[in-house]
Amino acid sequence: MRFAVLVSGHGSNLFALLEAEARGALAPAEIAVVLSNRPDAPALDRAQKFAKPTVIVDHRDYAGRDDFEAAMLAALDPYRVEAVVLAGFMRILETRFVSAFPNRIINTHPALLPSFPGLDAPAQAIEYGVKQSGCSVHFVDLGVDTGPIIAQVAVPVLDDDDAGSLHERIKAREHELLPEVVQLLAAGRLQCVGRRVCHLPAPHVPAHNANENAKP
Question: How many C-beta atoms lie closer than 10 Å to residue 98's C-beta?
């Protein structure tokens, strides 16, 4: 499955995906292209170091979101993109783009959704005084961090945490979880029924087939 990764900033989640692909841990997913809405995004340099095609669609060049999304879809079309990962992409997606990839756009969020959606989730968690935070990977719908949840990992909130220290520990788990989810989606092992996302088992490979290449 060919993925586009959409970025706006430094691209630490993009880097996690690129590293996973480089060591063979993302197959059958393939990062086909990296798109940024900001020409100066450092994530573009990360992509180029891994020899990935990059495209820029600056949202400031368009009068409205619909025109911007039409331009993004046109820019992705030559790369035969089948699914999309938002990796720090700081634009809300609307109907035109989301409907082009039904249940094939995924995003990460540094909180255990539905708690603390939107911006500054670690700061929200610190202010509220929760004992557990974490990260969520979810399908993207037309809301803000409201799509069906695919996977979550809990991260404890320590007594001496501030928003920055908590976010750093959450990002470490995000960088592990996101490639796993991308691989599951590419392998056809995610089934979305309403708001519930089921993880399907890996196909069984009969032992005689698995060992067929080992025959003399």
Answer: 19
Give the residue from 184, 104, 94, 185 showing the smallest Cα distance to 139. 104
Q: Following CA atoms 139, 145, 148, 151 in sequence, which dihedral angle do they give, to the nearest 10 degrees? A: 80
Tell me which fold the domain 2-107+139-144+177-214 belongs to: Rossmann fold (3.40.50)
Decide if pLDDT at 87 tops 80. Answer: yes
The span from the CA of 136 to the CA of 107, in Å, is: 8
Which tokens belong to 146?
A: 């409201």
User: pTM of the entire structure?
Assistant: 0.91
Instruction: Please classify residue 90 by burial: count the beta carbons closer than 10 Å to its beta carbon, then call 0-12 exposed, 13-18 middle and 19+ buried.
Output: middle
Mean pLDDT of 86-104: 95
Residues serving a catalytic function are 109
Confidence grade of residue 207 (pLDDT, cut at 50, 70, 90) = low
